[in-house]
Amino acid sequence: MGVLNVTPDSFSDGGLFLDPPAAVARAWAIAEEGADILDIGAESTRPGAEPVPVAEELERVLPVLEGLAGYPLPISIDTRKPEVARAALEAGAALVNDVSGLRSGPELAEEAARAGAALVLMHSRGEPATMHLLPPSADILGDIDVWAEEAVARARSSGVSSQRLILDPGIGFGKTSGQNLEVLRNLSRLAQSGFPLLVGTSRKSFIGSILNRPADERAWGSAAAVAAAILFGAHIIRVHDVRAMADVARVADAIAGEGSRE
Fold this sequence. Notes:
Layout: E1 2-5, H1 20-32, E2 38-41, H2 54-66, E3 75-78, H3 82-90, E4 95-98, H4 107-115, E5 118-122, H5 140-157, E6 165-168, H6 177-185, H7 187-191, E7 198-199, H8 205-211, H9 219-232, E8 236-237, H10 242-256
Parallel strand pairs: 1-2, 2-3, 3-4, 4-5, 5-6, 7-8
Helix pairs in contact: 1-2, 2-3, 3-4, 6-8, 9-10
């Protein structure tokens, strides 16, 4: 899954693709670099980020979707808002990537169900604006276990088929660096739910903590985390450096004996 942020303030590439023609060009480059899914987000969820109004999020993302007629990959809309999800699905998106895990209500899941779209449910603690200020969870793996059961139940009750659900343990998002490593080491625990797993480690701050490098110098650390995530059970990896990470994923799949999982 290749990341396309049409935001001014995303932690890694904010502002680079805010202009719709630049975003469309980057989307085609992501496809050419070997991605299987394009994930477009118009609201930053980095630590400390403030919410974006619905109208502004739509103003950022709809021109990009309109410019991707004939695009060869499934498109995911990274949003917490049902209004944005509905508009994006009507404009051709096939997947909704919800970093709130439906904590704000059933409406987003209802939009996915109505469109027959896939739905990613991600674990997070708190809101982006304040999640980095929360005290650490006493049992992050237990928290994720409970969250997964509840989030899946909410999605199902809103009409989303189990066959269209994907779980994301939410690397970052209110977790300490040590807890992020713990979550990665224990991905098989979440995989026991039977749902495909999406994992986003790309350029995250826990890699920066290990390497003492800024976000734009974390490609090698991201590669290690991507390979580990696949070996521990991830089915989809969400990345910025698509060409390099596509190679990492193919080799990690081959080592895991799952090279035919494409």
